[in-house]
Design goal:
Length: 150
Amino acid sequence: MFHNMEKNALSHCEYESNADYYAVQEIFMSAAHHDKLLRWCEDKVSKNTTYNYSSVARLMLPRCMHASEDKALGANPKLFCSEAAILALRDTLPEHDPVLQALQHLVAVSATPGDVSKSLQRTLGEPKPIADMLPTRHLKHATSANLYDP
């Protein structure tokens, strides 16, 4: 949120220091779908995709925020965090995947993190505490340098 898309080392310090404020949904997918998701994200990074700062003001104007359809992504798109997550999953998951079906009713450009969470809860159940999901729960002695393999 509020950051341009970038490929960097995994950073969990924000989440670990405030673990009580965060919850996550675990989405299982095949290795092929994971690789497709990664390629989608890498494509947006290579195109210098920025956070959609220019439309943040619309968040305060409900009639303006509720777009009726998603826009086509241009060569240098600007995306909200929830929008990027929805579009990435739509491009990645197979047509009949339950997660994809849960997100189909959302207009990505106007979906809030709460909208995404509620939609996923119907399919995946309650989110899990982030402390239970962080990779470091399995790698107690890992450093950030060995959590990322470029």
